[in-house]
Specification:
The complex is a heterodimer. By secondary structure, chain A is of the alpha/beta class. In chain A, 39% of the residues lie in helices and 27% in strands. In chain A, the strands form 3 sheets. Chain A has a 6-stranded mixed sheet, with helices on both faces. In chain A, strands 1, 2, 4, 5 and 6 form a 5-stranded antiparallel sheet that branches. Chain A has a two-stranded antiparallel ribbon with strand order 8-9. The radius of gyration of chain A is 18 Å and the shape is globular. Chain B has one domain. In chain B, the strands form 2 sheets. In chain B, strands 1, 2, 3, 5, 6, 8, 10, 11, 13, 15 and 17 form an 11-stranded mixed sheet that branches. In chain B, strands 4-7-9-12-14-16-18 form a 7-stranded parallel sheet. In chain B, helix 11 links the parallel strand 2 (193-197) and strand 3. Chain B is globular. Classes of the chains: A alpha/beta, B alpha/beta. The complex binds adenosine-5'-diphosphate and magnesium ion. Magnesium ion binds next to helix 1 of chain A. Chain B: Pfam families: SUFBD_core, SufBD_N.
Amino acid sequence: MLEIKNLHASVEDKEILKGIDLKVNAGEVHAIMGPNGSGKSTLAEVIAGQEEFEVGEGNIFLEGEDLEELSPEERAHKGVFLSFQYPVEIPGVSVTNFMKTAINESRKAQGLEDMPANEMLKKIREKSELLEIDRKFLSRSLNEGFSGGEKKRNEIFQMAMLEPKLAILDETDSGLDIDALRIVANGVNKLRSKDNAIIVITHYQRLLDYIVPDFVHVLYNGKIVKSGTKELALELEEKGYDWLKEEAAV
Amino acid sequence: MAYTEEELKKELETKEYEYGFYTDIESDTLPKGLNEEIVIAISKKKEEPEWMTEWRLEAFRAWKEMEEPEWANVTYKKPDFQDISYYSAPNKKPKYNSLDEVDPELLDTFKKLGISVDEQKKLAGVAVDIVMDSVSVATTFKKTLAEKGIIFCSISEAIQEHPELVKKYLGTVVPQKDNFYAALNSAVFSDGSFCYIPKGVRCPMELSTYFRINQAGTGQFERTLVIADEGSYVSYLEGCTAPMRDENQLHAAVVELIALDDAEIKYSTVQNWYPGNDEGKGGVFNFVTKRGLCEKNAKISWTQVETGSAVTWKYPSCILKGDHSIGEFYSIAVTNNFQQADTGTKMIHLGKNTKSTIISKGISAGQSQNSYRGLVQVNSRAENARNFSQCDSLLMGNRCGAHTFPYIEAKNKTAQIEHEATTSKIGEDQIFYCNQRGIDTEKAIALIVNGFSKEVLNKLPMEFAVEAQKLLEISLEGSVG
Ligand SMILES: Nc1ncnc2c1ncn2[C@@H]1O[C@H](COP(=O)(O)OP(=O)(O)O)[C@@H](O)[C@H]1O
Ligand SMILES: [Mg+2]
């Protein structure tokens, strides 16, 4: 599904990603953990095609295709989805309208007609029920005045609507109370299938109790310093990151 | 829109050449320049009664003594008023024989706006021989209007057929001497629309929707007069979302609205004159005076979407004379490239318990300048007057400007005036967010701009709103990237 080889990325001559290798197969869930500022969000955004970052060496392949030349929207059309750590507000544009536009733009790129209104409505109903989202919420301006938790839940609602091949969830758990966390995780789990893959970026083991990863990687100072199974997450919870930092310094 | 001066020149040249063969048309154009003889000649050509000729002359004499205003936040080369021809007989000869001859870019824009092929032909000035559906529609609707006693015709026709109404109301809201451009318009106006809604009648349709095609060829000095008699209602649509490639550089229109007791007028405009090319060359100067008078309990709403013209100078206003009268102004002004807009409103509260609302949305891109200029005036006798103003500016890029000039004059202590203003920028992060969801940058901007303008777009009649939305997209095309 996703293969990253020796990826380097920098911003304003400051190197943030310093050679990342990562392979994610269809059907897998990978967790990426690591202290603040280690480059997790940068990695997520570089995969999504954020042009603010300059990709030096290295390549990203999605289903064997090099993404280098593709714009963010083309990557989205190919099934890349990013649940943002800090979703932006778009005043005056309702969640529904935004989703309608997003879905139809992707369909257009695939040479399909707009989704018929009744189908769209059915889908919206289904997915909002899955994430226990009040219908009134969907007519509000996108992320405007949303609480932290509402923003995150809305991101996952969008993921459910768009049904991506590769979903990257960047700290989707922060800002969620325990009930919301359960709802969101439950939503994500329902979207898991043997044909798609999920990368979960998180600080906390807590989320991984709900979304159980196949692999856990630790990103530190722009590099993946350790990889393992879900037991690694438990170990990190217990011991913190310092021992890894020391290990990395050696 | 890449429409170079060269192309424009060429088009004009070929046109002149074309028309040169038709001496009868040639002879119907008055020589350049403006003096009393010309004013009299215009009036004569239109076979106007003497009182009308006098009225025009009065305006002309006032205009001669006036100076072109300079207070607006716009800079442009002032037109040479002696170098303009003030009367041209309506041009009946089609400009083109088929759509193939029309500027493909213009056609492209028509297509984006979803304008039918027949209508495209009419708008571009292509000969049409099939009778269009809309023409028959127009006839049916004219009949419906007549049954209700509604008069809707050209102002020239009204001067002939309904002189008592014209005489009674023309110039009562915008006097001949009101300002430089209004005086000029009063002296030389060529045509425009007239509308009268009788007492208690609710006009059964949006006026002018079905007449849009006929409206397309409006002139340089347009004059509009709308009278809503007691307890009546009318929604009037002016303009056309299709781009107007008019060779007239100067446009100075006057619109007067009169809402008698308990009447309501909704006046919606979409202005899309040629804005000049992307280097700031060419384009229309649009200097408009629009004003409405509200008697007791009456209501006037101005809604405008301004995307065209190189220079716009326009302040649709309400005089809230009657107690409990209401004035509203909803505006979207888009400027791109080198366009300059100085627009806003005046709400003059004279009556008791009068209320006004101002919602202005300015969108600036390129190197354009977009100014809101608004006056809220509360007279000493206007007890309990209330105003709410909201002026929002959206900037795209770093080279454009947005300016807000709110003037408040309250002479009555009971007045409640609220003013809110915001300025925001379309953020890279907003665009990336949309991109990530599969929405390309152009579409993302359209989405963000539509969201920003929503409160005003919602005020437009339904079918106009859809077109206006597309127009916003087209106006901002290529402004980021
Ligand atoms: N646009 C940017 N300009 C400058 N520095 C940036 C930018 N984005 C991220 N960084 C820096 O890159 C490093 C990694 O950031 P980030 O990827 O957000 O880390 P994480 O998500 O792991 O907390 C930080 O030091 C951060 O300050
Ligand atoms: Mg982060």
